[in-house]
């Protein structure tokens, strides 16, 4: 009886929280109970109701660190407030020690395909537990910012490259997102516009940054006709990731006939996520554009 009463109290508290604004559930360790001994967190921000559109959010950070606040929590809360359930993924990155010391010359550390493995596992978990999360498993997308935008792109291009099997996992659901949203993304690792820090972050050091691997992970070279619809945005005055990255991806998507919307703003910079006071009035307009684009999809 005491347990039943406690459950009722917790349920009431959850309903009250939903009525008073944004909230997050406890983070999940996506690799708990598997052969892979890693602690990677996925934090749900469920919207009210059931059968919701859902988005896995991948913060940026050059594949060395993660902007958890602006490009993680801030984005998730904005999505949640607009009736979209969000899941912030703290995927594996190289880490600050790897950036400073180059220790991955002698030790593997975190590098590709770890982050692709993390996003595929997240898609699997959310889809297989769609009813519990109150989401529609056929309306699940991946949104990413900067290097996280590159990861969102990989999720849409490499969905049939099953990197979960190396962790002893057989997915019962499709690993193909229903849409992807790379926001001011890193795209190319071969063009002169390459963001070299992100390239080093994902590939490692020295000979690990080979011509083959640079080509293999350049999104513009692996666009496919059967990939999900794409929402793409960037700013010309971006001081971190050159705007040509998004232009390359837009051209490749157009050539393959992939349904997509590309918006290029003249001003706005980089690293602002969904936070108005971190960018221009012009660039923050991407939020409304994205919501309208989703409505047109579903």
Please describe the structure with a list of short key phrases separated by commas or semicolons.
single chain, 298 residues, alpha/beta, eight-stranded mixed sheet, 36% helix, globular, disordered N terminus
Helix content: 25-40%
Structure class: alpha/beta
What would the principal axes of the Cα set say about the shape? globular
Q: Residue-averaged pLDDT, rounded?
A: 93
- CA-CA gap between termini: 44 Å
Can you walk me through this structure?
The chain has 298 residues and is an alpha/beta fold. The chain has helices spanning 2-19, 69-81, 96-101, 114-128, 130-133, 147-157, 196-203, 211-216, 244-256, 286-297, and strands at 28-29, 41-45, 52-58, 85-89, 135-145, 179-183, 230-235, 260-265. Helix 9 links the parallel strand 7 (230-235) and strand 8 (260-265).
């Amino acid at each position: 009886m005491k347990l039943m009463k406690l459950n009722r109290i917790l349920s009431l508290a959850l309903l009250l929280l939903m009525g008073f604004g944004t909230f997050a559930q406890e983070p999940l360790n996506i690799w708990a109970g598997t052969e892979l001994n890693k602690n990677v967190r996925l934090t749900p921000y469920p919207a009210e109701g059931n059968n919701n559109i859902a988005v896995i959010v991948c913060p940026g950070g050059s594949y060395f660190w993660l902007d958890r606040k602006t490009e993680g929590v801030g984005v998730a809360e904005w999505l949640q407030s607009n009736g979209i359930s969000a899941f912030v993924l703290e995927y594996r990155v190289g880490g600050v020690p790897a950036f400073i010391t180059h220790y991955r010359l002698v030790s593997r550390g975190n590098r590709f395909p770890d982050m692709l493995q993390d996003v595929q596992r997240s898609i699997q978990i959310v889809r297989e537990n769609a009813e519990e999360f109150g989401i529609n498993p056929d309306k699940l997308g991946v949104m990413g910012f900067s290097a996280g935008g590159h990861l969102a792109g990989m999720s849409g291009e490499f969905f049939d490259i099953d990197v979960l099997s190396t962790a002893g996992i057989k997915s019962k659901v499709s690993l193909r997102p229903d849409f992807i949203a790379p926001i001011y993304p890193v795209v190319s690792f071969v063009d002169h516009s390459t963001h070299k820090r992100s390239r080093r972050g994902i590939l490692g050091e020295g000979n690990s940054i080979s011509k083959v691997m640079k080509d293999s992970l350049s999104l513009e070279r692996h666009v496919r006709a059967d990939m999900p619809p794409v929402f793409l945005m960037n700013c010309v005055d971006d001081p971190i990731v050159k705007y040509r990255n998004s232009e390359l991806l837009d051209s490749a998507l157009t050539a393959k006939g992939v349904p997509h919307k590309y918006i290029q703003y003249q001003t706005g910079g980089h690293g602002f996520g969904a936070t108005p006071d971190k960018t221009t009035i012009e660039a923050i307009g991407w939020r409304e554009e994205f919501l309208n684009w989703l409505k047109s999809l579903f």
